[in-house]
């Protein structure tokens, strides 16, 4: 991803008509399409991903890029958690292969 042009640490301007308007971002991860909704208020993006709310300041990236990064992180963490749970299940309930 490329960063939006900024002035030092100043946030890229968010158009006034984007403030408090609900938008959507869609990504594909592991062959599945995922949708998030978001709005921007006072320089902070509020995203809803799978019923969970995520917030982040609008600094060096466009709002769509921020929400996309949030979604990718969420689904990467979810996959890692599911992998850990699966490994735990296999360790705690080994199948008897001696039969």
Overall description:
With 99 residues, the protein is α+β, with helices and mostly antiparallel strands. It is 30% helix and 29% strand. It has 1 helix and 4 strands, in the order ββββα.
Characteristics:
single chain, 99 residues, alpha+beta, four-stranded antiparallel beta sheet, elongated
| C-alpha termini separation | 53 Å
Name the beta content range. 25-35%
Compressed to H and E, one letter per element, the order equals: EEEEH
Q: Could you say which structural class the secondary elements and strand pairing correspond to? A: alpha+beta
Provide the number of structural domains. 1
Helical proportion? 25-40%
Mean pLDDT: 80
How many strands, which pairing sense, and closed or not: the largest β-sheet? 4 strands, antiparallel
The tally of strands reads 4
Radius of gyration from the alpha-carbon trace, in angstroms: 19 Å
How are the strands of the largest sheet arranged? 1-2-3-4
Q: Name the poorly predicted regions.
A: 1-12
**If helices are DSSP runs of H or I spanning 4 or more residues, what is the number of helices?**
1
